[in-house]
Design a protein that fits this description.
Monomer. This protein is an alpha/beta fold. The chain is 36% helix and 24% strand. The strands form two sheets. It has a six-stranded mixed sheet with strand order 2-3-1-4-5-6, with helices on both faces. Strands 7-8-9 form a three-stranded mixed sheet. The longest helix has 18 residues, at 245-262. It is globular.
Length: 293
């Protein structure tokens, strides 16, 4: 008997969805930072066993959209309800509600199995944990509730085993050696964007998009040329920094991660360009791969 299915992870920003997916897949597919809205796309991670294929889907954190880019991000979340065989709703200790009532209604009325994962329990005590389990048992009575520390690895294996049990019987959807549905350039873009999220403050990380214009793989080295898009000239100056030091730091750290990811030497060239108001431009958003309403 072979099992296969889509396991879609949703929740508010910063609940640890990407950390959990990377723990399941065993590779760093989704970028992880402490800032909200780190994940902008829906990213599939594929885990294969002898008798199963688990297709994990990490989606953007649920927010109330303020501009076109965020509308597109929420379209990825909506799509996660359409093809799920198992739905994972992640919350963290102290959280009380989902930021979108319509999504919450979909969860509580779901006909498919729902696992509610109560993450970051390493930051709580036993009394608080028991209170939170009681709260979510009443709010989402159709869910199986599991305490979790995705970062520390607590309960990750047990939840993984339970998901396999819930997968429907099915042949594999993807080749058994495939890790994700995303092309190589996507991970180059995301790795660079992660470093920008880590090192820059305020509006800068959210005004940035990455476009890898060249990706040439040779026997011992991959040569890449990526452009960091910003919305204003002032942002360009901040990204580059004094005598280019800030941009160089991004490049050095991204290159190290990419060499680990691809398993070979990487040569990365970074440039910064102004692309005015790209977050509100439907044509630009389509170019960067965002869903349209």
């Amino acid at each position: 008997m072979h099992k296969a299915g889509f396991v879609n992870i949703i929740g508010n920003p910063n609940v640890g969805k990407s950390t959990l997916m990377n723990a399941f897949v065993g590779e760093k597919l989704s970028i992880i930072t402490s800032k909200a809205q780190t994940t902008r796309h829906r990213i599939l991670g594929i885990v294969n066993g002898e008798d199963f294929q688990m297709i994990l889907s990490d989606t953007p954190g649920i927010i109330k959209p303020a501009y076109e880019l965020q509308e597109s991000m929420m379209a990825f979340v909506k799509s996660a309800f359409d093809d799920a065989d198992v739905l994972i709703y992640m919350v963290e200790i102290g959280e009380q509600e989902l930021k979108d009532d319509a999504f919450f209604q979909k969860i509580t009325n779901s006909k498919i199995p729902v696992l509610l994962l109560l993450n970051k329990i390493d930051k709580s005590d036993q009394q608080q944990l028991e209170e939170q389990v009681q709260l979510w048992t009443e709010k989402v009575p159709n869910a199986e509730i599991y305490p979790l520390s995705a970062l520390q690895g607590f309960n990750v294996k047990e939840i993984f085993t339970r998901i396999i049990e819930l997968l429907p019987e099915s042949p594999a959807f993807y080749p058994k050696d495939q890790l994700t549905d995303r092309p190589e350039r996507f991970f180059v873009n995301e790795t660079i964007r992660e470093k920008i999220l880590i090192h820059y403050k305020k509006e800068i990380p959210y005004a940035v998009e990455i476009d890898t214009e060249e990706f040439f793989e040779e026997e011992t080295i991959i040569r890449m040329r990526s452009v960091i898009m910003v919305e204003r000239e002032t942002q360009k100056g901040i990204i580059i920094g004094h005598k280019g030091t800030a941009l160089k730091r991004v490049g050095v750290e991204a290159r190290k991660d990419l060499e680990l990811f691809f398993g070979k030497q990487v040569h990365l060239e970074l440039y910064v360009k102004v692309n005015k108001n790209w977050r509100s431009d439907q044509r630009q958003l389509k170019r960067f791969g965002y869903n349209q309403k």
